Amino acid sequence: MDLYESRLEELRAQYGKYSELDAVKDYNRSLLAVNIDHMLELNHYDRKRIHNLKYFTWIEQQGRDVDELNAQWYAYPDYWKRIQSREDDIDQMIEEFNEKTGIL
Predict the structure, then answer these.
(1) SS3 of 40-80
(2) Do 80 and 101 belong to one domain?
(3) What is the C-alpha to C-alpha distance for residues 54 and 70, in angstroms, rounded to an integer?
(4) pLDDT digit string (tens) for 25-75?
(5) Domain residues for 27?
């Protein structure tokens, strides 16, 4: 999330503080408008291709460990079950991020 801090500052300067009303509009315009036209059923090779694209952002940009990236693919689905089990921790991080950025 640290990568987006400068972008948030730019958007705030351009549009003002992101309000609850802005969030409602974005939710209704963007998320509720999604239908099957915006989805793709992926086969094994499609999923692998997308996974391989993460290398640049995870490893080269964010400096993450390649073992973690590999675990997403080779330890599937256990890797993702462990992530989902951290729901409370993740929610807390989201709340902290939102407070830091002034969204809430």
Answers:
(1) CCCCHHHHHHHHHHHHHHHHHHCCCCHHHHHHHHHCCCHHH
(2) yes
(3) 10
(4) 999 998 898 888 888 999 999 999 999 999 988 898 889 999 989 998 998
(5) 1-39
What is the helix, strand, coil percentage profile of the chain, to 5?
75, 0, 25
Residue 71, Cβ density class (10 Å: 0-12 exposed, 13-18 middle, ≥19 buried):
middle
Count of the separate structural domains present in the chain: 2
C-alpha 17/C-alpha 8 separation (Å) is 10
- The residue whose two tokens read 């974005």 is 26
Chain-centroid distance, C-alpha 34: 17
- Cα 70 to Cα 89: distance, rounded to the nearest angstrom: 23
- In this prediction the pTM is 0.53
